[in-house]
Amino acid sequence: MARTNLPIPTGWKLLFRELYRRVHQQVTSPYTKVVFLAALFFVCTQKEISFNLSIAGHDLFSISQQSVFSHGIGGPVISGGAGKALFTSVARPSDKNWTKKQRTQLAYVEKFEAAALSEARKHGIPASITLAQGLLESGHGTSTLAKRNKNHFGIKCFSKQCRKGHCSNHSDDHHKDFFRVFEDAHGSYAAHSQVLLKNRYKPLFKLAKRDYKGWSHGLRKAGYATDPRYGDKLVALIETLELWRYDRVSA
């Protein structure tokens, strides 16, 4: 039996032609290129995007964007450190009446959490330890060394041939002590990691990344500081400000 080709109604032909025209017009238009570039930008910055197709309207593409993060003390965070955006989801701290000093300390933590998390992921140093040391060594960013040298960890200079601006004299345990000078505070965070990667601190990397007590007391035993209560002070900061939250993210 011969196959019979049924004719396509004129109305359907016109509909298909109109749909093709609209699709072709949208795909080749500069607007569509802008839309896709914008979508790519949001994807790269880890934003959540939803695309809706609409054939009935003149615009085939509509974009609705909703941020999946918001910035605030202890809450989900969008942070920028060392010129790079770093996205984390840090659990909120318990609700309690923070003292004025603790709020100042939390503001410091919020400022440098991205740097600490970045170093944690690069080198395996718990972010809680880095933040606690930064708080303690710099007086949450208020020490002369932190302000003048951008040095938040008391990192000393042992080089005998320093270029100009590499270090400066500062009174410490001895009559003459020279400390590193950094262009910005994030530079001292990176240098802090390099200090802890030295052989004397290698045993610490065998500890669990969430073992902030072991790290705190291990730093004291390895000679990071001369204060016999150095480890206890780090633990107190981590527990009071709940800095252990950052280790759960970076582990």
UniProtKB/TrEMBL annotation:
Record's keyword terms, sorted: Hydrolase
**Which Pfam families has this protein been placed in?**
Glucosaminidase
**Which SMART domains does the protein's record reference?**
LYZ2 (SM00047)
Q: Residue ranges of the Mannosyl-glycoprotein endo-beta-N-acetylglucosamidase-like domain?
A: 97-247
Q: Does the keyword Hydrolase apply?
A: yes
Question: Which superkingdom, per the lineage?
Answer: Bacteria
Q: What is this protein called?
A: Mannosyl-glycoprotein endo-beta-N-acetylglucosamidase-like domain-containing protein
